[in-house]
Amino acid sequence: MNDAATRKLALSHLWVAFAAFIVACLMGEYQVLERSGFIPALDSAPVYFASVSTHGVLMAFVLTTFFIMGFGYTIATTSLKQPVWNQPLAWGGFGLALFGVVLAAIPLLTGKASVLYTFYPPIVAHAAFYIGATLLVVGSWVWCAIMLVMFTQWKKANPGQAVPLAMFATAANAMLWLWTSAGVALEVLFQLIPLSLGWIDTVDPGLARTLFAWTLHPIVYFWLIPAYIAFYVFVPKQAGGFLFSDEMARIAFIVLAVFALPIGFHHLYMDPEQAKGWKLLHGIGTFVVALPTLVTGFTVIASLEIAGRLRGGKGLFGWILTLPWNNTMVLSVILALLMLIFGGFGGIVNASYAMNAMIHNTAWVPGHFHLIFGGTTIIMYFAIAYYLWPMLVRKPLFSNAMALTQLWTWFIGMVILTTPWHILGLLGQPRRISSVVYNNLLTLAWKPYELAMIFGGLILLGSACLFVYNLAKTQMNPSSEAFAQEIEFAQPIHAVTSLPEYLNSLTLWNKVIAVLMAISFGFPILQFFFMKTFGSSAWGY
Amino acid sequence: MQIEPSKGINHLRDLYAQFNAIHIDQLERRWIAISLMVIGLFVGIITIDALFHGINPPGKVETIDSASLHLSKEFAEDNLGVQVDEKGAIIIRMVAGRYSFFPKHIDVPAETPLTFRWVSMDVLHGVHIPMTNMSTMIVPGYVAEITTTFPKPGEYPLLCNEYCGLGHNHMWSNISVIAKEDWKAPVKSPAKGEQQ
């Protein structure tokens, strides 16, 4: 990463991501306060829903997409030791995505797009919202193209050699995102933009939900894969050990990318427009995709154990104590895995077909995805940022102690926020309400949990401020001392000797995905064109 | 001329041999086997329940014109609420619309199978009766049908659980679950225009 131009490219992406993040954190704390009803002056449904729509878009689409792009450019240039292919094009993608964000932000912030980040029709937002979101996705497609070109060029230049694991996973994620975003792109281009501009009179909400479900599961794997990349290629080295298995890591990334796609109907378990057989098929696929996560858990913990024992740890659990807990990457992975265990447990409940009825669209669901996305995924984004920042700005991190405090407070805040949130769901509280006005005794049981969530949110907001402050101070440090450290990728215990071509290339898997998608989405989408359906006209909110 | 299938088999055999040549630790193989068994157990229980015990989420794909429910025979205003059909089954027809469920209040018996038929007259809604599995999305253009049984009598709220507009919080109504022996089938009021 000696190349100043690449560093500027990566930093620009990461700053957009973290600026979106801090704004969205402020909104999150406002939302728990408003929703609790403890401060009557705050009570306003229009402001709340504008805020929650913006919070969702910023966290789920802006933070993630820009972070993944910036991280991808860094991984590609450092692991392949090549400059970014077609740097002007990369800046073009960045500009397009940023322009899209600004275009979508105007209706969001003025209350013209309070449709939440899932924007289910027939409620319709201002057209600028959909067009802006589309440009953000098109900008990210530019990134996908650059990643796949660099992957292919390197393979051509180095025949028979294993593509570095970090780049293999990044390219798999680019392929995954192209497939993933196609579903929502079809929905937005053929249904929502024409409807919002008045070009068509009606859309079928059942078809729209089916296309959105295509995107809705794999998109979370698009967000998660950078965290898994850090687990495999940074954590073992930072802990002072080796990667347990390079080959299993590749298999995990492939299974993750392939099986993330054909399983989106677990979001539609409670929907009337799809038959139960398809739901069961997608449900089984959902359990299959637990496998790469279980493999990842094993590999990461095994790698940590190797490091702990190399550092003198003894006994069954003694090695845990000898891990470098003051290393931000190592602390992050420990906290991330803890949250993954509980979040994964919740996810299995969600995935369990008919059992889903008990928690579907209750407060349990945002509790679940805040824990597993806001917790596991985002804490690894922090860890990656702390690791990369000094190399990107060529200055040492402003404060490691502050970073450790930040990671711990993020974990504690997330536990205090999401535990009551899950319980509220089990107590029947629906998600997506701005206040509790039900005249029912049941709601009395909700109050203490809503109070706890305010404190959880407050701790998270403080933690987020520490994070951004630390990065800003690092960058603005006037010291001119040269910081020469480079990214270190973890080495596997066993060098990769024989790697089948299908574990070093995406061609076969692309075809497998095409077949699986045709099986799992072919008929469920085509049925809308064969049966007599009734479209819905556009509604305000 | 048996070349074609054997070629395919040989190719798969090659792929498998390549796969076997890569290094996977014995411990990790065991872990994968355990993981697959756990996943198989979960999937097996769910599949057996679905296929043999009929435990499924709603999934009857049935369309309806949400814009003209008042003109449809089934969901005309007079026909909503609890009815007992000629076979003795209890059918409950409900309309969701911003911002309530209609009729606003219904009485149903406990420990009796109830078939709910939900439709929306405007946007996307969802309905859940907390502490029960009476949960479904109500998508405009479709009839959401779900059959369930409430084991315990009591007063339950019916809550909208999908964002449907700025008044979403206010979208709820009540349902009284009455002990089986105390419940009386409502007398069907004749639909308008029908012969008395």
Describe the structure.
The complex is a heterodimer of chains A (541) and B (196). Chain A is an all-alpha fold. Chain A has a single domain (4-480, 499-537), classed as Cytochrome C Oxidase, Chain A (Up-down Bundle). Helices cover 69% and strands 1% of the residues of chain A. Chain A is built from 17 helices and 2 strands. Chain A has a two-stranded antiparallel sheet with strand order 1-2. In chain A, helix 1 packs parallel to helix 3 (87-109), helix 4 packs antiparallel against helix 5 and helix 14 (364-393) packs antiparallel against helix 15 (400-426). Chain A is globular and about 60 Å long. The relative contact order of chain A is 0.12. With 196 residues, chain B is α+β, with helices and mostly antiparallel strands. Chain B folds into 2 domains: 3-52, no CATH class; 66-182, Cupredoxins -  blue copper proteins (Immunoglobulin-like, Sandwich), CATH 2.60.40.420. Chain B is built from 2 helices and 10 strands; from the N terminus they run H-H-E-E-E-E-E-E-E-E-E-E. Chain B has helices at 3-21, 26-52, and strands at residues 81-84, 90-97, 100-102, 105-109, 114-120, 125-128, 135-138, 144-148, 154-160, 172-178. Mean pLDDT of chain B is 89; it is low at 191-196. At the A-B interface, helix 2, helix 6, helix 10, helix 11 and strand 2 of A face helix 1, helix 2, strand 7 and strand 9 of B.
What structural class do the secondary elements of chain A suggest? Answer: mainly alpha
- The CATH superfamily of chain A turns out to be Cytochrome c oxidase-like, subunit I domain
What is the annotated CATH architecture of the largest domain in chain B?
Sandwich
Strand-residue proportion of chain B: 25-35%
- CATH homologous superfamily label of the largest domain in chain B: Cupredoxins -  blue copper proteins
Mean pLDDT of chain A: 95
Number of helices of chain A: 17
Which second-level CATH architecture of chain A applies? Up-down Bundle
CATH topology of the largest domain in chain B: Immunoglobulin-like
User: What is the spatial order of strands in the main beta sheet of chain A?
Assistant: 1-2
Beta fraction of the residues of chain A? under 5%
Give the termini separation of chain A: 49 Å
Approximate shape of chain A: globular
Oligomeric category:
heterodimer
Sequence of secondary-structure elements of chain A = HHHHHEHHHHHHHHHHHHE
CATH topology of chain A: Cytochrome C Oxidase, Chain A
Order of helices and strands of chain B: HHEEEEEEEEEE
Structurally, how many domains make up the residues of chain B? 2
Helical residues, percent of chain A = 55-70%
CATH class of the largest domain in chain B: Mainly Beta
